[in-house]
Amino acid sequence: MLTIKNLQANVGEKQILNGIDLQVNAGEVHAIMGPNGSGKSTLASVLAGREDYEVTGGEVDFLGKNLLELSPEDRAREGIFMAFQYPVEIPGVSTINFMKTAINQIREYRGQQPLDAVSFLQLMKEKMKLVEIDQSLLNRSLNEGFSGGEKKRNEIFQMAMLEPKLALLDETDSGLDIDALRIVANGVNKLRNKNNAVIVVTHYQRLLDYIVPDFVHVLYKGKIVKSGTKELALELEAKGYDWIKNEVTVA
Amino acid sequence: MIHIGKNTRSRIVSKGISAGKSQNSYRGQVHVMKRATNARNHSQCDSLLMGDQCGAHTFPYIDVENNSARIEHEATTSKIGEDQIFYCLQRGIDEEAAVALIVNGYAKEVLNQLPMEFAVEAQKLLALTLEGSVG
């Protein structure tokens, strides 16, 4: 589904990604871990098409298309969804209104008719149940005055509504208490199927207890220095990142 | 806004939008006359800036002739942030629609107070004015 080859990216003059190679197939969950400043969030942002990052080399293929040539909105319309680490507030715009605009623009891109009010409401009710979110939250201005947990739940709700092929969860676990973490993880698990894939960017193993990854990659200094299965995450939790840093330095 | 009688209250909400090279000014007078005991006024002036060549200015004129009056004035300036735009883009909403969404959300508090026909008209006017103003 997603093939990343030797991806390099800069912020200003500073090179953050130093040649990332990653293959993600449909139905898989990949976790990207690594110490602070290793480039985890940059990778997610580059894939989503944020302009602050300049891609200086490499290729990214998404479902047969050159992802790097697509505008951010077209990437979203092709099925890439990013759950933000810090979702922004948009005063006066309710989540419902926001989602309606998004869904209809995506449908237009795919050559479909806009969703009528009744079907939209039906879809919304169904997804609300799935991610255990209350309608009162969706009537409020998008993310305005939301607690950390509410914001993240709202992100997962949006993910449910848009049914992406590839979901990037950028430190979705930050700022969540245990209950919120469980609800968010449950939502993600329910949305998993054999046709979509998830990339989870996280610091901690905790989230991976709930969203069990097929592969774990460790990012360090802008490169994937180690890949493994979920046991690798447990090992990291026990030993920290230092042994990986040492291994890289020795090699 | 002129307060003449006792125990009168008023509220002013002004929402200005500046795009391109426009400068937007709010001038509003609140006058509390001698006999207007316990008059209250709250003024709120919000300005939204689009781009980096526009500006917004607020000039409140307050004349109070009665000491019991309570007058409040509050002003905010905000900018459509790149983060807000990117958030919309990431959900598949193009830039023009994103700006329209954000601006409409911003103006909603005022537009909601208008009678239906005016509100629809105002909204269309807003969309028309903003067309192509994103650079």
Task: Summarize the structure in words.
The complex is a heterodimer of chains A (251) and B (135). Chain A is of the alpha/beta class and 251 residues long. Chain A is built from 10 helices and 12 strands. In chain A, α2 packs across α3 and α6 runs parallel beside α7. Chain A is globular and about 60 Å long. Chain A starts with a strand and ends with a helix. Helix content of chain B is 30%, strand content 40%. In chain B, the strands form 2 sheets. In chain B, strands 1-3-5 form a 3-stranded parallel β-sheet, with no helix packed on it. The mean pLDDT of chain B is 89. Classes of the chains: A alpha/beta (251), B alpha/beta (135). Chains A and B meet through α2, β7 and α3 of A and α1 and α2 of B.
How many strands appear in the DSSP assignment of chain B?
6
Chains forming the largest contact: A-B, 30 and 23 residues
In DSSP terms (H or I, runs of 4 or more residues), the helix count of chain A works out at 10
Strand neighbour order, sheet with most strands of chain B? 1-3-5
User: What is the H/E string of chain B?
Assistant: EEEEEEHHH
Beta-strand percent range of chain B: 35-45%
Please state how the strands of the largest beta sheet of chain A are arranged side by side: 6-9-10-3-11-12
Main pleated sheet of chain B: 3 strands, parallel
Mean pLDDT of chain A: 92
Number of strands of chain A: 12
Q: Which oligomerization state do the chains in this entry correspond to?
A: heterodimer
- Unreliable spans of chain A: none
Helix content of chain A: 40-55%
